[in-house]
Specification:
8 helices, globular, six-stranded antiparallel beta sheet, 5 domains, 13-stranded mixed beta sheet, mainly beta, 9% helix
């Protein structure tokens, strides 16, 4: 029987122990710290690369303490951490989550440590180009990327390459000495190899989620498999072909759709499929190819696809399998430089197998254990890469590949991302997001979803602390409490169930207010100064730096109903930004623009006259008119809404005759960096964390479309994790 303190981080057949590899080489057990257990908030794994993220919480540690001293002597940046599973009788198992600490966060709940999986330490290094004269096999580039002798400080084991037992592809005999530059580097004739070579050795991308993952994205085999990298115990990377089973095995997990504690959602998106693949590239000798064909008389040019289903190509009378009932869906690939035309066909054919049918993707949440071999299997130990059958879906049993696993030991649940096509986690993410990149194997893996944000370590993005809430940051107006404690988790933009319950007329502190429409454009800007006067920018809790992938802002009346109106919004890094920094109407446009007469006078600050915020004239030349731009030093990050496209027309557009909705939902990614502010000390992290003004952004909103009553604004910014 396990001791009581162990019970708090145990599962259905054992318990977790947390160990750290201290700087002096000592292995320290921190499962029980200061007389009580630490909390494992979450663990995740992905395919490829295995262990991905985890979070530990120490309720016993307060913000007064200094990591690295006293009984926290082991808590140093980048320290390695293992989360191991033990049987009920205390005997160890082979299951272990391995990673390293990348950030720490102090709150009233104690100290939280964020961890990255072991292999993701490779992203601390860049893929520096080294311009080989001879082509290098992909597997050697991947092997060298993981070589701890070549990466000072890298704590993973050397890469192991596992070729299948029946692998027959070997390096051909040496070519003529006249073509020495085409002979693969670092590998002998007759040796097993993947057959992929390149002279592209990187371009300063992150080493793992940039360079290695890009190589893996096109490493299809002739049999339709795909190479991947998994992590084995001991921080050991293994290059292998991702197993693609067509029927359950003895290791496959089983659950039943509709059963208690089994929550499943699936989708099958036909826009994320293709049955004819064109492409272009150039081989190692510099010869270009695109499948281009020209008729004998030169009058017609056409293109042969690199892969296609016979049911749609060729669409000629001599193809007995063509079926005009099947919709043709073409796509095009840009093959990496150095890939031969034959290799390109192999890649295209493998890609076709993955996307000819879009397959099913989905999410499975379990709060009960699945079965394996008729015996319950601990759900907390499910990892990416395993297979699972969901019985009874659409009248059948459906076999899935688990591309991502997110375990929550504190509430004993696991959330799984599923795919029937045995694709990697990033591809499945793109398919589920319905983005164009899903059908591009090179682009979709250039930036991984789990890269370490080194530039965001002093002040990481934290939704739980109000990051991205508009307004926030502890000013006179702050909606953090509204979003974090009063709004249901399932509430969707524009959040009207909540805004009607907590309307501006009763809860004005949650909203950004602009008074009733004024004939003075300067008075139609948002903001409140310390003296209670309008026109100053308002704070938003951000982080050190990063990218915003989704911007959502809505306008409301005093009762919390969405108010259809046009508006402008912009974000800044300087807390001194005011209405006086906004573009002003030039003398030539005096009295010509505004919502109604009398129109605004020259020198008023107004975002909707032609040319406002634009550094270029319509003819492409520089404006040479500072009044059209924001004032120097304002540190403009991004703005939405000008004379040509006002904000507040989503999902339509002003330029296309859209109707006003009072809503802005913008998915264009934009970046921010708060380190330029005087409050942000890059070299004194503790000082920066304690400064309430550090990590803030600032917002300016303009609206003169509200009529005789005020308009109120509320919004959210959503962070692009991994620098996506």
């Amino acid at each position: 029987m396990a001791t009581p303190w162990i019970d708090q981080i145990r599962g259905s057949s054992g318990y977790f122990r947390v160990m750290v590899h201290a700087p002096n080489g000592q292995l320290v057990d921190i499962t029980k710290f200061r007389g009580s257990p630490i909390q494992i908030n979450s663990m995740s794994s992905v395919d490829p690369f295995g262990d991905a993220t985890a979070q530990l919480n120490f309720p016993q540690v307060s913000g007064f303490e200094r990591p690295g001293y006293g009984d926290l002597w082991w808590m140093v940046p980048w320290v390695m951490v293992d989360i191991a599973w033990y049987n009920d009788d205390g005997s160890p198992t082979t299951w272990v989550w391995e990673g390293f600490m990348v950030s720490e966060e102090i709150s009233n709940d104690g100290l939280a440590l964020t961890l990255k999986g072991a292999l993701f330490e490779l992203d601390n290094y860049k893929a520096k180009p080294w311009y080989p004269q001879r082509p290098v096999p992909y597997e050697l580039l991947i092997r060298d990327s993981f070589d701890p002798n070549m990466r000072i400080g890298l704590r993973t084991s050397p890469l192991r390459i596992d070729f299948p037992a029946d692998w027959s592809q070997v390096v051909p005999k040496e070519r003529s000495t006249n073509f020495w530059y085409l002979t693969p580097w670092g590998i002998k004739p007759g040796a097993k190899w993947t057959g992929f070579t390149t002279r592209n050795t990187g371009s300063w991308d992150p080493l793992l989620t940039g360079f290695v993952q890009t190589l893996l994205s096109i490493m299809y085999t002739e049999g339709g498999g795909q190479w991947t990298v998994k992590k084995e115990t001991g921080r050991t990377p293994v290059l292998m072909i991702r197993p693609e089973i067509t029927a359950p095995t003895e290791d496959t997990l089983h659950v039943w759709y509709g059963a208690h504690s089994v929550e499943l959602s699936l989708s099958r998106d036909f826009t994320q499929s293709t049955n004819v693949i064109f492409g272009s590239g150039s081989d190692l000798a510099g010869s270009a190819f695109s499948g281009q064909q020209v008729t004998r008389d030169g009058s017609t040019t056409y293109y042969e696809p690199f892969a296609a289903l016979p049911s749609v190509y060729p669409a000629t009378a001599d193809n007995p399998r063509v079926n005009d009932k099947i919709r043709r869906n073409e796509s095009r690939l840009e093959f990496p430089a150095g890939m031969s035309q034959l290799e390109a066909k192999t890649v295209a054919e493998g890609h076709l197998r993955k996307f000819a049918d879009p397959g099913y993707t989905g999410q499975l949440r379990l709060s009960t254990d699945p079965l394996r071999g008729g015996i319950p299997y601990n759900r907390l130990l499910i990892r990416a890469g395993q297979g699972i059958v969901v019985h009874g879906v659409r009248g059948a049993d459906m076999l899935f590949h688990i591309t991502e696993s997110n375990v929550s030991p504190m509430d004993m649940t696991v959330s799984l991302t599923l795919d029937t096509k045995y694709r990697d986690a990033k591809t499945v993410y793109e398919v589920r997001a319905m983005t164009r990149d899903a059908l591009d194997p090179v682009r979709l893996l250039k930036v991984g979803a789990y890269s370490v944000q080194v530039q965001d370590q002093i002040l990481p993005w934290s939704y739980s602390h109000g990051a991205g809430i508009i307004p926030s940051g502890g000013g006179a107006f702050d909606a953090s409490k509204l979003f974090l404690t009063k709004m249901p988790a399932e509430e969707k933009f524009p959040w009207t169930n909540t805004t009607r319950k907590y309307p501006p007329k009763k809860y004005p502190g949650y909203y950004i207010k602009i008074p009733k429409q004024s004939t003075d454009a300067n008075l139609n800007w948002s903001g409140v100064t310390k003296e209670g006067l309008y026109w100053a920018s308002l704070p938003i809790r951000m982080s050190q730096s990063g990218n915003i992938r989704l911007t959502q802002i809505a306008a409301y009346d005093e009762n919390g109903n969405v108010l259809p109106c046009r508006f402008h919004v912009s974000f800044y890094g300087n807390n001194g930004t005011t209405v006086k920094a906004m573009p002003s109407i030039p003398a030539s446009l005096d009295g010509k623009y505004g919502p109604r007469k009398p129109y605004y006078k020259a020198a008023m600050h107004y975002p909707f006259y032609p040319g406002a915020f634009e550094a270029k004239r319509e003819d492409g030349t520089d404006t040479n008119n500072p009044a059209r731009l924001v004032a120097e030093g304002s540190d403009l990050w991004v703005g939405f809404g000008n004379a040509y496209e006002g904000a507040g027309y989503w999902p339509g557009r002003q330029s296309r005759g859209g109707v006003k909705t009072g809503l802005l939902s913008e998915e264009q990614t934009w970046s921010f960096d708060t380190t330029g502010a005087t409050q942000f000390d890059r070299y004194r992290a503790e000082k920066t964390r304690k400064d309430k003004l550090a990590g803030l952004g600032y917002i300016m909103i303009y609206c003169d479309d509200q009529g005789t009553k005020p308009v109120y604004f509320l919004g959210r910014l959503f962070h692009a994790e991994g620098g996506a």
